[in-house]
Amino acid sequence: MTDDFPFLAAVAADGAAPYRLLEHLNALGVSISRSTLYRRVGELVAQGLLRETKEKSERGSRPLTLTRKGQARLGSGSVRVLREESLASPLFALAVAAADAADDGETEGILRERMSGAARQLTRAERADTAAGDAFWASTERERRVAHLKADLQWLQTVVARRSAAGPASLAA
Questions:
Q1: How high is the mean pLDDT of the chain?
Q2: pLDDT tier for residue 137 given thresholds of 50, 70 and 90
Q3: What is the DSSP letter of 167?
Q4: Number of Cβ within a 10 Å radius of residue 154
Q5: Topology adopted by domain 5-101
Q6: 150 in helix, strand or coil?
């Protein structure tokens, strides 16, 4: 994995020690080995994107924080992920969770665009569902797709509404 985004976003969302970042990434469905994580964290610290704090965690390692340079890199990575990744992608969820640290004013607009796109897809899927007289399995697949689109749309509406009501700091809550 050469993309820094998952590491920077996990630090922004959690700010934990490396072993906790591994748990966080794996829980989101981002598969990464312990050795890869520790190697990338070391490289990101050397590049000035992350820094270790002075206090130690319960396991004796030092929690990580983003530097200004790391926040800038996270911001550009977040915009890319929010625009390009599937709504079902763990990277998309990670970008939403880290949006407070990365926000450069584009996040809400991108989320609104994605919400509009999901609404259009839902409309097309529902129309196809009512017009189809297909076999049971084709109909079942369309129903599943409609249910997923409804859930994605509801989630995006909640995120955008929370952000609009309370400002950027509310996005990751």
A1: 82
A2: low
A3: -
A4: 12
A5: Arc Repressor Mutant, subunit A (1.10.10)
A6: helix
Find out whether 139 and 132 touch, Cβ atoms under 8 Å: yes
9: Cβ contacts below 8 Å, ≥ 6 apart:
74, 77, 78, 94, 95, 97, 98, 102
Tokens at 5, concatenated: 């985004």
Q: What sign for the dihedral angle of Cα 70, 64, 30, 166? A: negative
**Is the Cβ–Cβ distance between 95 and 81 less than 8 Å?**
yes
Question: What is the domain partition of the chain in residue ranges?
Answer: 5-101, 105-170
Distance (Å, whole) CA 136 – CA 119: 25
**What is the rounded distance in angstroms from the CA atom of residue 115 to the CA atom of residue 149?**
10
Residues in the chain, how many?
Answer: 173
Residue 168 is given by DSSP the state G
